[in-house]
Design brief:
- By secondary structure, the protein is α/β, with parallel strands linked by helices.
- The protein has one domain: Rossmann fold (3-Layer(aba) Sandwich), CATH 3.40.50.
- Helix content is about 25%, strand content about 10%.
- The chain has helices at about 45-55, 85-90, 120-125, 145-150, 165-170, 190-210, 225-230, 285-305, and strands at about 10-15, 20, 35-40, 110, 155, 215-220, 250, 270, 310-315.
- The strands form two sheets. Strands 1, 2, 3, 4, 5, 6 and 9 form a seven-stranded mixed β-sheet that branches. Strands 7-8 form a two-stranded antiparallel ribbon.
- The protein is globular.
- The two termini are about 15 Å apart.
- About 45% of the residues are buried.
């Protein structure tokens, strides 16, 4: 850990992504701020503001969102803290303020994540006739662009195992055959294989980017493996056996119903979110996010500065 301390004036970008900016030269605190880009997995409060602009429905400011840690809804799509919050706390930093709901300076960092955001703009999806895939909130940024603005330490998470996601499982329920499911986990095999393929391509792209920017620490953060660990061994992490069932939803085999959103009058919520992996659909509970964050944070604390070009973030 001591070998990391001399790395001054660095930034960590967690994309889903995020940027931790500026290591303390005194060594008391490795970074003083985080800049984050992403979607609902990392949105700490931009969604209510952004969705109101377009008169889009949003239930995240209704209970039971936020009740586990904050005691009230905060705009996060979970019962409590997200990975970003847990990493910030682990580094001794304050929560990263959502830029749309923050009127002060961004000297302490900023969160640009918005629920529903896509990496590519709507034109990409329209040109390829992909229905319903465009977003009003494209990130419209790139790692190259961020590094030109001074980002030096960048963490880029891969995809979750989408074939285990209750929305995907619900969508294919009754249509997929027994051979389409992993007999051990109940997840959809081909969708998980697609996510794994995406993650492999992402790692290849990051490898190329490292060669272009040898002075930057560009880290791939494994989001797939820790979620699979929880799905495969729910009791080990304190989760109930029906681990693919959401805590807050509208009924059905996975308690997920697109027409009955968590926070709505017809939705029901579990008594103990910490016993569930999934909170309202694809989003995890704070308990689930904690396992992912613990692995990333362990690697950040021990290896980011010492091994900036080769490390991967995964559970210790």
């Amino acid at each position: 850990m001591g070998s990391c301390l001399p790395c001054a004036a660095t930034s960590l970008l967690l994309l889903q992504l995020a940027v931790l900016a500026s290591l303390s030269a005194a060594g008391h605190r490795r970074y003083h701020s985080i800049f984050n880009f992403g979607d609902s997995f990392a949105d700490t409060g931009n969604k209510p503001v952004a969705y109101a602009w377009y008169s889009l429905p949003s239930n995240v400011m209704r209970p039971p969102y936020g009740e586990t840690f904050f005691g009230h809804p905060t705009g996060r799509s979970s019962d409590g803290r997200l990975i970003l919050d847990l990493i910030a706390a682990g580094l001794g930093l304050p929560f990263v303020p959502p830029y749309l709901a923050h009127g002060g300076s961004f000297g302490g960092g900023a969160n640009f994540a918005v629920a529903g955001a896509t990496a590519l703009d709507a034109g990409f999806f329209h040109d390829r006739d992909i229905p319903g895939a465009g977003s009003k909130f494209p990130l419209n940024t790139s790692l190259d662009r961020l590094m030109k603005h001074g980002a030096k330490s960048i963490v880029v998470p891969g995809m979750i195992p989408s074939g285990c996601s209750p929305p995907a499982l619900t969508s294919f329920y009754g249509r997929a055959g027994p051979a389409d499911y992993d007999a051990r986990t109940g997840c959809l095999r081909e969708i998980n294989e697609l996510a794994s393929h995406h993650n492999s391509l992402l790692q290849d792209a990051l490898h190329e980017l490292r060669s272009k920017h040898p002075d930057a620490a560009i880290v791939y953060a494994d989001f797939f493996r820790p979620v699979m660990e929880m799905v495969e061994s729910p009791r080990r992490f304190g989760f109930r056996e029906d681990v693919l069932t959401v805590c807050c939803g509208g009924g059905g085999p996975y308690n997920f119903n697109e027409s009955v959103a968590c926070g709505g009058a017809a939705a029901t919520a579990c008594e103990d979110p910490s016993a569930s992996l999934y909170f309202d659909g694809a989003h995890l509970t704070e308990a689930g996010y904690r396992h992912v964050a613990d692995g990333w944070l362990s690697s950040i604390n021990s290896c980011l500065c010492a091994h900036p070009h080769t490390m991967k973030l995964r559970r210790a």
